Amino acid sequence: MELKSAIIQLSREIGIDKIGFAVADNFEYLREGIEAQAVAGNQAGFEHQNLDERLNPDLIFKAPKTIIAVALAYPSKLTSRPKRTNYRRGQFASVSWGIDYHDILQTKIDQLIEGIKALTSDFDYKAMVDTGELIDVAVAQRAGLGFIGKNGLLITPEFGSYVYLGEIITSIELEPDQPISLNCGECKRCVNLCPTDALIGNGKMVAKRCLSFQTQNKGEMPLEFRSKIRTTIYGCDICQQVCPYNKGINSTQHQDELAIDLELAYPELIPLIKLTNREFKAKFGHISGSWRGKNVLQRNAIYALGNARDQTAVDFLVELYHTSTREDFKEACFWSLSLILNSEASAQQLLKK
Ligand code: SF4
Ligand code: SF4
């Protein structure tokens, strides 16, 4: 069997859902757009900061020939809900359900690498999952895994946009795959239904308007976004949920590996806010939504209590206001109490007592 076919076969045995091969040429065609986004202040700041390295595989790997792009599909719907308790629950976006995908995908990429090493002695490589230099969606598109939608996500025909992406740069020359010919056509659903008008309509976004960014950004969240997160304390699924390419898709083949715990996907808000650092790490440390630490999620959980108009949270919020040493928490308590009591004056009065 020729090497490329053997690698594809191997990837199937490992449980990688899609694999594609791209020439390791530069991605300089993206430079102008990215620089314009930076000048306009539209970037999140979470991306790799060296643009030359993001666009040029040969700056991060000696003599690259091929980039092997892989995708792992993840579930977008949970068929059951956690049991009802005395506490209001929030939720994480689907990308953060279960064990951190970086770990699961990295394990599969490591297995693929070991398998390729057994197939050829001449294999130099550099592997990446999400936090590497290259732009995952651009690599995946070139390798034929899918197309980039107006929501900026990689959309595969089989699994929609609910895929984790990773790649391996290698010195081996393998026949490249062709980009697929699908596209969004006239559809603009994600652009029109994004609650914060974050999407520009050309696959780019004003990252600082995106709720996914806002739920991960530390400090006080700007007022205009707080109600829009509703009770989602990490991420946002809306521009995926409304996409016709995602209709009816729920990929459950890795559900066992992801070990999704409903108690974590839909956490009780007040118990989450009460967690110490140590308790938070023990409980949530293995999910990807914990990467920014506990404080930002606890702040979001306080906003979520307000958005849920949770009357049972009033005493808790008053106590937290008086005991917390964090200004963003105090301010969040006041904001949420104002919503629950339907009056800033009432919240102020309650907090004076
Ligand atoms: S993730 Fe949410 S806020 Fe961000 S662009 Fe999509 S719909 Fe808009
Ligand atoms: S919702 Fe429509 S415009 Fe947005 S990514 Fe999906 S197909 Fe494209």
Your description of this structure?
- Helix content is 40%, strand content 10%.
- It has two domains: 3-79 and 97-170, no CATH class; 189-352, no CATH class.
- The model has no long low-confidence stretch (mean pLDDT 96).
- The protein has helices at residues 3-14, 31-39, 51-55, 57-60, 101-119, 136-142, 189-193, 211-214, 223-226, 238-241, 255-258, 262-265, 269-274, 277-284, 294-307, 314-323, 327-340, 344-352, and strands at residues 18-23, 66-73, 91-92, 125-129, 147-148, 154-155, 163-170, 232-234.
- The chain has 18 helices and eight strands.
- The strands form three sheets. A four-stranded antiparallel β-sheet has the order 1-2-7-4, sandwiched between helices. It has a two-stranded parallel ribbon with strand order 3-8. Strands 5-6 form a two-stranded antiparallel ribbon.
- With 353 residues, the chain is an alpha+beta fold.
- One iron/sulfur cluster is lined by residues 149-151, 184, 187-190, 242-245.
Secondary-structure map:
Elements: H1 3-14, E1 18-23, H2 31-39, H3 51-55, H4 57-60, E2 66-73, E3 91-92, H5 101-119, E4 125-129, H6 136-142, E5 147-148, E6 154-155, E7 163-170, H7 189-193, H8 211-214, H9 223-226, E8 232-234, H10 238-241, H11 255-258, H12 262-265, H13 269-274, H14 277-284, H15 294-307, H16 314-323, H17 327-340, H18 344-352
Parallel strand pairs: 3-8
Antiparallel strand pairs: 1-2, 2-7, 4-7, 5-6
The protein binds iron/sulfur cluster (2 copies).
Give short descriptive properties of this protein.
40% helix, binds iron/sulfur cluster, single chain, 18 helices, 353 residues, two-stranded parallel ribbon, alpha+beta, four-stranded antiparallel beta sheet
